[in-house]
Amino acid sequence: METFGFRSYLGVPILLKGEGIGALVVLSRTVKDFTERDVFFLQQLAAEAAVAIHHALLFEELRRLNDDLERANQESSQFLARLAHEFKTPLTVITGLLEVMNMGTTGSLTDQQKAAMSKIHDQCEALVRLLNDLLNLSRIKAGAIPVEVSPVIMGEILRSLEPLVDELQRKSGLHVEWDVEPDLPVLMTDGPKVEAVLRNLIVNAFKYTSEGKVGIRVTNRPETESVELVVEDTGRGISPEDLPKIFEGYHQVRSTDSAQGVGLGLTIVKKYLDLIKGTIDVESVPGSGSVFKVTLPRVIQA
Question: What DSSP element (H or E) covers 231?
Answer without folding.
Answer: strand 226-233
